C-alpha cells in the first residue's frame, strides 16, 4: 500500500514538473522579445497562431483542435480561413499531408503529444476534462483509454486540474485575469 502511495506521489511530482516546463515554454517567445528589446506585435502573434493551427492540422487534429492548439476560438480560425486564402490552403495542405502519411489499417493512437499538450492547457484554463477533450477534438473514449493505459497521462490530467484557477476566482475575476496582453499593431495583421 505504501509503495502505491509512493508511486502516486512520484507521478504527481513528475506531472507538476512537466506542467512547469510547459509554462516556461509558453513564456519563451515573450522572454526572447524582451531580450531583443522589442514589443509584442499583432502581425507576428497572428502568424504564430496560424502556424500553430497548421502544425496541429498536420498532426491530425480537427478544426476545434487546431483552434485550441493555436489558443484561439474556432470561429476566429474560420474567419482567418475566409479572409486569408493562403492560410486556408495551408490548413488544407496540412490535413492532406496528415492523411497521406496515415495507415488505414492501423488503430489510431490514444493521443498525440500536441493533443495532450493542448488538452492540458485547456484544462488548466478551467474547462472540465470532458469539455476540454471535446474542445481539442479528442473523444472521451480515446482520452479515457490513454489515462487507463498510461498512468503518466492520468497524472498529467490530474496535475492540470490541480493547477487551474479556482472556480470562484474565474467567476469573480475581471477581464484582466484572462491573460490578455498588449500588442503593437503595425497595420493589417494578416498582410503586415
Task: Explain what you see.
- By secondary structure, the protein is mainly alpha-helical.
- Helix content is 70%, strand content 0%.
- It has 10 helices and no strands.
- Helix 4 packs across helix 5, helix 6 (113-124) crosses helix 7 (129-136) and helix 8 packs across helix 9.
- It is globular and about 60 Å long.
- The model is unreliable at 173-178 (pLDDT under 50).
End-to-end C-alpha gap:
60 Å
Strand-pairing-aware structural class? mainly alpha
Tell me roughly what share of residues is in helical segments: over 70%
Total strand count, please?
A: 0
Strand content: under 5%
Broad shape: globular
Tally of contiguous helical segments: 10
Residue windows where pLDDT falls under 50 for at least 5 positions? 173-178
The overall average pLDDT, rounded, is 84
Give a short account of the largest sheet.
none
Series of secondary-structure elements, N-terminal to C-terminal: HHHHHHHHHH
Radius of gyration: 18 Å
Defining key terms:
192 residues, mainly alpha
Topology:
Elements: H1 2-36, H2 42-58, H3 63-70, H4 74-83, H5 85-100, H6 113-124, H7 129-136, H8 140-149, H9 151-163, H10 167-172
Summarize the structure.
The chain is an all-alpha fold and 192 residues long. It has helices spanning 2-36, 42-58, 63-70, 74-83, 85-100, 113-124, 129-136, 140-149, 151-163, 167-172.
Amino acid at each position: 500500500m505504501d509503495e502505491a502511495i509512493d508511486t502516486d506521489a512520484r507521478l504527481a511530482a513528475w506531472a507538476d514538473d512537466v506542467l512547469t516546463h510547459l509554462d516556461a515554454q509558453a513564456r519563451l517567445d515573450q522572454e526572447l522579445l524582451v531580450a531583443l528589446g522589442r514589443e509584442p506585435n499583432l502581425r507576428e502573434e497572428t502568424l504564430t497562431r496560424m502556424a500553430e493551427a497548421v502544425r496541429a492540422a498536420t498532426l491530425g487534429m480537427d478544426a476545434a483542435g487546431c483552434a485550441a492548439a493555436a489558443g484561439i476560438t474556432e470561429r476566429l480560425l474560420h474567419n482567418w480561413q475566409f479572409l486569408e486564402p493562403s492560410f486556408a490552403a495551408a490548413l488544407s495542405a496540412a490535413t492532406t499531408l496528415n492523411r497521406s502519411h496515415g495507415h488505414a489499417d492501423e488503430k489510431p493512437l490514444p493521443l498525440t503529444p500536441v493533443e495532450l499538450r493542448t488538452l492540458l492547457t485547456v484544462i488548466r484554463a478551467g474547462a472540465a476534462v470532458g469539455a476540454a477533450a471535446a474542445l481539442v477534438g479528442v473523444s472521451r473514449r480515446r482520452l479515457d483509454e490513454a489515462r487507463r493505459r498510461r498512468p503518466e497521462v492520468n497524472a498529467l490530467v490530474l496535475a492540470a486540474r490541480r493547477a487551474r484557477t479556482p472556480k470562484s476566482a474565474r467567476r469573480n475575476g475581471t477581464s484582466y485575469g484572462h491573460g490578455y496582453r498588449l500588442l503593437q499593431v503595425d497595420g493589417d495583421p494578416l498582410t503586415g
